[in-house]
Amino acid sequence: NDGLIRFAQNDAEWQVLAALFDGMVDREGRLPAWPFLHQGGKVTIYEFDLVIAEDFGQVLASLTLEYDDKSITVLGVEPGLTYYRDEYAVYSGFSLRAEALPDAYGEAVWHEPGGDPGGALAFTIDVITIIGSSRRWAVWAQRDWEIGLLLTVGGDWDCGGIDVPSIPDGADLADFRAPEGWGMPLTQEDLFMFRKAIQDHQLGSGETG
């Protein structure tokens, strides 16, 4: 990858990458609690499986062009540092130079350390977050909810024209999740809290992607 992809090499480097999300993403929180610390902005919702797919690199490339990011950072939040380090001798955090997108994202997220697919983030990560160096956008994706959220702050970025479909504004999340009995069931309270969080952060009607 000619230095365009850099995985953390030790605990300290992973912590440096994690600190880049401070003030923007609540790495300790989980849906239905709102994961973003920035007030305001616009949210676009994706299916979780799309966020960890190679094609999501197209979304990230488009964001870096809109917000003039020099790089992006990807962090596996759950399982986190110790799981991947102890099980696969790899760290669940990496940075990508913007010019490496879109292709390098898929290469990195599907990287199999030592040829073991279990060590690939795309196979085993439950919570993943992504941020641009401009700090004007961030992604939070959570496997049990089967969705990913993209927060953009300012600018004119729009998901239209990118061949990675988002979940339409106001859609019933149940229509985009696994059939009942397969995934984690979401209660009406869960869904209410989720919708309220969007409204409370001024990401509701007319502002979602």
Explain this structure to me?
This protein has helices spanning 11-19, 48-51, 56-67, 81-88, 103-109, 121-124, 188-200; strands at residues 5-7, 42-47, 71-78, 93-97, 127-132, 137-142, 147-152. With 209 residues, the protein is α+β, with helices and mostly antiparallel strands. Strands 1-4-3-5-6-7-2 form a 7-stranded antiparallel beta sheet, sandwiched between helices. A hairpin with a 4-residue loop joins β6 and β7. α3 packs across α5 (103-109). It is globular, with a radius of gyration of 16 Å. It starts with a strand and ends in a 9-residue tail after the last helix.
Give a quick summary of the entry.
The protein is about 25% helix and about 20% strand. The protein is an alpha+beta fold. Strands 1-4-3-5-6-7-2 form a 7-stranded antiparallel beta sheet, sandwiched between helices.
- What's the helix-strand series? EHEHHEHEHHEEEH
Distance between the termini: 33 Å
What percentage of the residues does DSSP assign to strands (E)? 15-25%
Query: Count the helices. How many?
Result: 7
- Gyration radius, rounded: 16 Å
Strand segment count: 7
Structural class: alpha+beta
**Unreliable stretches:** 203-209
Helicity level, as a percent range? 25-40%
Largest sheet: 7 strands, antiparallel
- The side-by-side strand order for the widest beta sheet comes to 1-4-3-5-6-7-2
The rough form would be described as globular
Mean pLDDT across all amino acids: 88
Task: Give the helix/strand layout.
Elements: E1 5-7, H1 11-19, E2 42-47, H2 48-51, H3 56-67, E3 71-78, H4 81-88, E4 93-97, H5 103-109, H6 121-124, E5 127-132, E6 137-142, E7 147-152, H7 188-200
Antiparallel strand pairs: 1-4, 2-7, 3-4, 3-5, 5-6, 6-7
Helix pairs in contact: 3-5
